[in-house]
Amino acid sequence: MSDVDDVLLRPVGEGDLPTLTGMLNSPEARAPFQWFGWLDPARTARGWAENGLLGPDNGLLMVATATEPLGFVSWRKIDASGYSYFWNIGILLLPDARGRGVGTRAQRLLVDYLFAHTPVVRIEADTEATNFPEQRALEKAGFTREGVLRSVVFRDGRWRDAMLYSIIRDDVDVAAAGA
């Protein structure tokens, strides 16, 4: 695997669809915190055909190096009121890409991108309360822990708590990020 500084975000290409579909429908790739059961295997291809997985209310970018896919980051619009919204982001890395700083780098690149290209003031992320590697990655990416979301995720037959994190525009120098 390449150096973490070689990690970049890029739009999903047609050649990425088998990797994405495989990741989303693989208990092994999604374990231990992201496996919620089988999904429609054609859903990703339909979304890509419709808008390249880049819409006004959500999006998905590949996490990659110049030569290999490492996973993906995603975001979705959360309406805060009739006049304001923020993004909730997520990440799923291939097992071989985990534990090397790739998640921290990818999430920071996504934050820089969203603040540079959308008017939101807040970006949030949540992760299961026992997902300590993701909590560390979010903190290293500049997110602040806000609290516990009790019994918010149903996985593997039971409800689980999650930790809520956020980063706001004032936390980041968007112009210096150069995204």
Chart the SSEs and their pairings:
Blueprint: E1 8-11, H1 17-24, H2 27-30, H3 43-51, E2 58-64, E3 69-79, E4 85-93, H4 102-117, E5 122-128, H5 132-140, E6 144-155, E7 158-168, H6 174-177
Protein name: Protein N-acetyltransferase, RimJ/RimL family
Domain N-acetyltransferase: 7-170
Keywords: Transferase
Give a brief description:
It comes from Actinacidiphila paucisporea. The protein is an alpha+beta fold and 179 residues long.
Global structural class: alpha+beta
Output the number of helix runs: 6
- State the fourth-level CATH superfamily: Gcn5-related N-acetyltransferase (GNAT)
Question: Could you spell the SSE succession in H and E letters?
Answer: EHHHEEEHEHEEH
Largest sheet: number of strands, sense, barrel closure: 7 strands, mixed
Using the coordinates shown, work out and report the CATH topology. Answer: Aminopeptidase
Poorly predicted regions are: none
Structural write-up:
By secondary structure, the protein is α+β, with helices and mostly antiparallel strands. The chain has a single domain (4-177), classed as Gcn5-related N-acetyltransferase (GNAT) (Aminopeptidase), CATH 3.40.630. It is 28% helix and 34% strand. The chain has six helices and seven strands; from the N terminus they run βαααβββαβαββα. Helix 4 (102-117) links the parallel strand 4 and strand 5 (122-128). Helix 4 (102-117) crosses helix 5 (132-140). The longest helix has 16 residues, at 102-117. It is globular. The two termini are 24 Å apart. The mean pLDDT is 93.
